[in-house]
Structures are given as structure tokens and as C-alpha cells.
Amino acid sequence: MKSNFIILFSVLSLFCINSLKADVVTISGRQIFVNKSLYTIKGICYHPVPKGSNVVSFSNLTEDLKLMSEAGINTIRVYSPITEKPVLDEIERAGLKVIINFGYNQGGTFDILSGSFIDYVKNYRNHGAILFWELGNEYNFHPEWFEGNINNWYHSLDDAAQLIHKMDPSHPVATAHGELPDLKALSLCPNIDIWGMNIYRWDNPEGAINGWSALSSKPMYLSEAGADSYMTAKMNGYEQGENEKAQADAIKNILGDIFRFPEICSGVALYEFADEWWKSGNNNAHDPGGWAPNSSGVPYDGAANEEYWGIVNIDRNKKMSYDVVRQKFNEIR
């Protein structure tokens, strides 16, 4: 009798686990809701690569999540799908959500070109960590990837979004566009629910937010915004070299602008969590330099020093900008 009870209990437990549903993420007007509660994205871009490597590793995830939670971060934006379920599970347990981004051509690994991205959606659509799906990252800057015609990308983007809608009605679909899209892009992508925008306009994204208000009534967020902590030259009152104050001042102004317009902008995924030493020169050294297209608006020197964008350094020591983020994000409810 006891063994039968154990078997029955096990079956019921398995049924309950398999019956769990993901949070339902919806949009209404310009705003995002999770289980009918308004959701503001207090996010961070996350691409953790250790010293000496150029490959993402989640070996430091537990410490990173503690730092994120302390800073008031509620959303992680990644640049490729997280394929390890235990990583998603730990993110969910920490109370954070993830924006999963799918690239166009990733060699057939959960990408749009091969169509394999939909397999990932099918497998993880009921995972509690998922906030929404995102397609592409500022591909509009690269028509050469689409036979010289960026409209080819927009058609692929919309087709992929439509396919996700059929597979997963519980999560919206976004894209991360480089700067504001034009009316042509919007007309070609009616199935995009949320427009993310990578915006680098010095320390003042207000114009982009107001520009979006004039273009569309859909939700938007800044999928990238921020500043690096290295000054290529002495200018604008900041000394040359590593300069955490320049970064902190810029981020304070950027976040101040973003959260002044909650009726238009649903938040930000600040670029980025930790410094990435793999981007320029020696992977074992912290090098200035690096290349990012269309980034002349990076404060306060117009130069994107790609290895210096973290709000913590590669050893997870907090920069001055971390305290700015913690103060601002913890003010927002």
C-alpha cells in the first residue's frame, strides 16, 4: 500500500511539473505586462567571457546574479540563446527574466536562416525565465549581409516573428534595431510587438524616445545604451585613460532621460554587465581600442573602447557606474 502511494505521489508530482505554465507576457498600448502587472525593464546586456577566452561561460553566474540583484536589475539581455537549462533555472530562481536573442546566420544553431530558432522557442516557451524573444541585433547597419537590400532582412524578421507567434502565444516578439527604424521598416514588420533600439546619442537619448513616440504606438525599450570607462583623449572635462567617473556621469544622465518617459519607453538593457577583454588585442590583457559601427555618439570622447563597457570589471569589482545603476534601478518600481 505504501509503495502504491509513493508511485501515485510521484505521478501527481510529475503531472504538476509538466502542467506548469510560463508567465504570460502581454502588451497593452505602449506598455509590457507580466501576469497583468506592469513590467519596467531594468536590464543589463550580458555576454560573460573569461580572461584569455573568446567564448561565453556561465561559470561565474551565481556571483553575477547576486551583483545584478543588488543593483536592482530585473532583466538580462543575451546575444545568443542560453542552451544550458540549469543556467535558465538559476536565473529564474534569482527572480530575473531573460530576453533571448536569435541571430540570422549562426551556422544552423538556433538561427533564423536555418529555421532552427523555432526549436528553441518550442523547448523553452514554458520556462519561467523568459521575458520575450528578440530577433537580430542592429542588422539594419549591414545590408551587405542581405544581398545589399535591407528589406530582405525585414521580410525575414517579420516571417520569423509570425512563426514564433504561432508557436508561443504567451511571449511577445521584439527586435533590436540600430537607432530608430523608419516608417518603411515598421510597415514591413507588423508582427514585431516590441521595438528595441540600440541608441548611442552621447548622454541624451531623449530625442530618440520622443522620435519613437511620433513614429509608432507600440512598446519600445533601449536594447543598448551606455558608456565605456576609458577616455581616448582628454576632453569635456575628463582626463585621458581609464575614467570611471566619465562612465558614471554618462550613465546617470542616460538613465535619468530614459525613466522620465515611462509612458513611451519600457526601460533599458544597459550595455553592459562586465568588461570583455576578448574584443581588442590580447585576450589576456585589458586593451583600449576596438571597433563598433556608428558609435560616434559614445560619451564623452566619441570612441567606443570595447573592452571597458562593464559596470563591473572582469574580476567583478564594482565600478563607480555600478552604484549609479543600483541607486536608479532601485528607485524604479
Short description:
Helix content is 32%, strand content 17%. The protein has helices spanning 2-19, 61-70, 85-93, 117-124, 150-167, 183-188, 206-215, 244-258, 320-331; strands at 25-28, 31-34, 37-38, 41-45, 75-77, 97-102, 130-137, 173-178, 194-198, 220-224, 230-231, 241-242, 265-270. The longest helix has 18 residues, at 2-19.
Strand content: 15-25%
Task: Count every helix, treating DSSP H or I runs of 4 or more residues as helices.
Answer: 9
Rounded average pLDDT: 93
**Secondary structure: number of strands:** 13
Large-scale geometry? globular
Give the structural class.
Answer: alpha/beta
Please provide the ordered H/E string of secondary-structure elements: HEEEEHEHEHEHEHEHEEEHEH
Task: Map the helices and strands.
Elements: H1 2-19, E1 25-28, E2 31-34, E3 37-38, E4 41-45, H2 61-70, E5 75-77, H3 85-93, E6 97-102, H4 117-124, E7 130-137, H5 150-167, E8 173-178, H6 183-188, E9 194-198, H7 206-215, E10 220-224, E11 230-231, E12 241-242, H8 244-258, E13 265-270, H9 320-331
Helix pairs in contact: 8-9
Polypeptide structure, described:
The protein has a single domain, classed as Alpha-Beta Barrel (TIM Barrel). The chain is built from nine helices and 13 strands. The chain has helices at residues 2-19, 61-70, 85-93, 117-124, 150-167, 183-188, 206-215, 244-258, 320-331; strands spanning 25-28, 31-34, 37-38, 41-45, 75-77, 97-102, 130-137, 173-178, 194-198, 220-224, 230-231, 241-242, 265-270. It has an eight-stranded parallel beta barrel. β2 (31-34) and β3 form a beta hairpin. α8 (244-258) runs parallel beside α9 (320-331). The chain starts with a helix and ends with a helix.
